[in-house]
Amino acid sequence: MSSLTELSAVEIARRVRAREASAEEVTRAHLARLAVVEPSIDAFLSVFEERALASACRLDADLAAGRPVPPLAGVPVAIKDVLDIEGTPTTCGSRFLESYRPPFTATAVARLEAAGAVVLGKTNMDEFAMGSSTENSAYKKTRNPWDPARVPGGSSGGSAAAVAAGVAPLALGTDTGGSIRQPAALCGVVGLKPTYGRVSRFGLVAFASSLDQVGPLCRTVEDAALCASVLCGPDPHDATSANEVVPDFGASLAGGARGLTIGVPWSFLAEGVETQTMAAFRESLQALEAAGARIVEVALPNAGHAIATYYIVATAEASSNLARFDGVRYGYRAPGARDLRGMYGDSRDHGFGAEVKRRIILGTFVLSSGYYDAYYVRAQRLRTLILADFEAAFGSCDAIATPTTPTPAFELGEKTADPLQMYLADIFTVPANLAGIPALSVPCGFSGGLPVGLQLLGRAFDEATLLRLGHAYQQLTRHHLARPALAATS
Amino acid sequence: MPKVTVETVDHVARLAHLCLTTEERELFARQLQDILAYAERVQAVDTAAVEPMSHARTSQTLREDEPVSGLATEVALAEAPDAANHLFRVPRVIGG
pTM for the whole thing? Predict the structure, then answer.
């Protein structure tokens, strides 16, 4: 890895601001890194070499002309291929959108670019963000940089692999049930799912609208704070974006762990956590305790129902959202249909992969007459109970800690035949989406040479406390400095 | 819990405008049964007195209702699989 590709986003922006490095030089170094590692990890669906160099050179010219230096000046970023960038492909990992070029740019991407970030390309993902391994992409299988026989997690697996392999210090992902945090944990990087409403969803292809949230993947919590400060804020194009004040997340890092109380829901963690993953989690709690945090036990009595609740709510919303893919206005249309109904059915059957169809079937079922109350409404009621559990728990703590995942990265193909086993990989991440609260995953050690993550959950709109704790943890530990062998040798 | 048959899947697929293959119908019937068996645990919780929650944010931020220009017709049609005379063209809707 050349030295520029080892730097954090904060350090790259500092060097570009100080004119110690040009944005062009930084971009070229990362594009070169991409060319070296991409054959081993298959993280990208498209690479914008020309566009990236043009925006880097434009930024350098602006700096030379003495224009104001934006906060992410010259920072290379990778974007999950579910966020639109005008005039470039957005496939969502689906054949249905193979040739789709959106006529607008997602607010999250526009904010990064306005802040001086340089978009390198779009990353691989489970089709329409449905999956926990990135194996549901219609295009390629992304490999975990720590072990090419294993999945990078999902659905933002391409973004996580790209950051872990040093292709970009920063990437955007989306998180509906853990799709930022789970791949971040399995690839040994940081992932932040902000509070629902913090980041505009405009230009994000919808999976489950009441759960979807955009956020960063990066190697340091400090970078997550910098990126969150740019991403968060209201957007007139998204009525669910929140009008809350966005603090300077970078400034809130300094507080340290002292004086904060961390709750651990031990009974929720009692079963199914792999031994070394649990050992790494316990060690991370000890480190935070040594740094001055107080550790207490909290109860989340309904969290055990979160997976069932989630797969009812999320598939119901997905079946509704994906009704728009009808072969009429954009995307794939099956040739040769005799009538409109046949055209809809064939386009959707040929254009969607198995997991997407499975979720449309499940979601349509739980919304259908006779089952709506028994499944969908009941899941909505459980969602209220899950949120109430969190509100009660935050009465006695400032953040809640769990392992991000019950196991480290599993092997490619290991869970593809059994969708329910794949769903259960999200056990610790889905409660935050159902409750709408923020959550951060930080690398906290290894199990059998594979990274695992510490998850911190916070009160709504209190990302600052999570970032403060995560940063304190990274000041005390060196897990986030470990790099996959892939990165060391090539 | 309901028994999921191939006919259940066929009914739902019709509602969702999905033409599935025979293998998909059989596979999905089996998998849907497994997933619903797992989801059955939600039936064990007494939720009678609990309000359903549709969204994490109850208050929405609505902008002023002022007209703004949207996508131009040619831009909106640019991605259409088939368009003519400033319209989306589709196969026969009625009869056939």
Answer: 0.97
